[in-house]
Amino acid sequence: MRCSPAVTSCSDVEDGNPDGICQGAHGAVWTAVPEAHELRRILPGGTVTHRARFGTWSPLAPALGGPDRSTLYVCVVEFDDVQDIINAMADPTDADQVCRGRIDVVEGVDVAGAGWP
Questions:
Q1: pLDDT tens digits, residue range 47-106?
Q2: What is the 3-state secondary structure (H, E, C) of the chain?
Q3: pLDDT tens, 90-107?
Q4: How many angstroms separate the CA atoms of 26 and 5, rounded?
Q5: CA 86 to CA 79: how far, in whole Å?
Q6: What is the pTM of this model?
Q7: Strand order of the sheet with strand 71-79?
Q8: How far is it, in rounded angstroms, from Cα 94 to Cα 109?
């Protein structure tokens, strides 16, 4: 993964596409990589320091929040076929049949959030 020095954008993830980003107080970011079923903490320059795996669930849209901004929230979804998700976006009447979702919470991350989500 390559990130700009300010970690304002990431590209060339070898095993997926970043989805959502939130920044910690020391400049690192958390981003979801749904195809890899992972959430990653990335330092300026691109070094991955933490990986949270979700089994068959795909993480999306991480956010740091809570009273001291040290709680990490992440939406996670599970589905059998990506085409089913595309179809459900066009007609959501059967979405609950093809996709399951929840919000996972990680309390007390090492470095609190910075800025606003």
A1: 899 999 999 998 989 999 888 888 889 999 887 777 777 777 777 777 777 778 899 988
A2: CEECCCCCCEECCCCCCCEEEEEECCCCEEEEEHHHCEEEEECCCCCEEEEEECCCCEEEEEEEECCCCCEEEEEEEEECCHHHHHHHHHCHHHHHHHEEEEEEEECCCCCCECCCC
A3: 777 777 777 788 999 888
A4: 13
A5: 11
A6: 0.75
A7: 58-65, 71-79, 99-106
A8: 36
φ and ψ of 100, to 5 deg: -115, 145
Total residue length of the chain:
117
**Burial (Cβ within 10 Å: 0-12, 13-18, ≥19) of residue 64:** buried
> In this structure, are strands 48-53 and 38-42 parallel, antiparallel, or unpaired?
antiparallel
